[in-house]
Design brief:
- This is KCD14 protein.
- By secondary structure, the chain is of the alpha/beta class.
- The chain has two domains: 96 residues, Potassium Channel Kv1.1, Chain A, CATH 3.30.710.10; 110 residues.
- It is 38% helix and 17% strand.
- The protein has nine helices and eight strands.
- The strands form two sheets. It has a four-stranded mixed beta sheet with strand order 2-1-4-3. A four-stranded mixed beta sheet has the order 6-5-8-7, with helices on one face.
- The N terminus is likely disordered.
Length: 243
Amino acid sequence: MSISSEHKPLGKQVTGSLHTLSPIVELNVGGEMYTTTLSTLKKHPGSKLAEMFTGQPKLRTDSEGRFFIDRPGTHFKYILEYLRSNQVPTQCIQDVYKEALFYDIEPLIKQLEDSPQIFGELVARKQFLARVPNYSENIELMIRIARAEAVASRQSGVIVCVVRTEEDAARCQDALNTLDMDKKSVVKFGPWKAVPSISDLLDCIQMDVEAKGYKISVQPHVAEKGFRFKSQDFFYKFLFTWW
């Protein structure tokens, strides 16, 4: 029984060599449709994108016969524009950078890494946070504590102790011993050897927690009367708002 054109099988594997195909290529990238040429897609031979369209076909097609790439389609237009005209995007830099990494387009990756947004993130912020012990683990710990405290509540708070020097770390531990709280629920950040201040680290914590989809705010934690140190020197309260 023959299959009519109205009932094409979904996701067909392309047969034959790509060299025999038309130089005009139709793409379905995550639901966004593009038309370009093989030479454009293969402009950088060492890239993953070029390899997709070199030699034996490595892609499936959609029901209309377009090559299908299972990636976010919205930002592929910037990738395509770079391949066509060497124009480096000035919008959606972080998202385009992720796609450039996936497609392994090395010249675009290097140019994007020189942009203020990527340079600041990779060279400045990430390098600073790499010097803060257990930073990523502490972010996850904060979230676990906040979720555990969220039962039947609109907000839940997490106490954070931030210390920049070894001396402050010792003072913080002394302060913890006098605080009327469960010490296991206090998340400690630091010390670190880098220029950024405590307020810079607090900004980073808030930025990275919010990047995971949480709504939070931060304020100095005021301890009970008679506390030996000014608690705001070390302790801050992150409020997670759930609804």
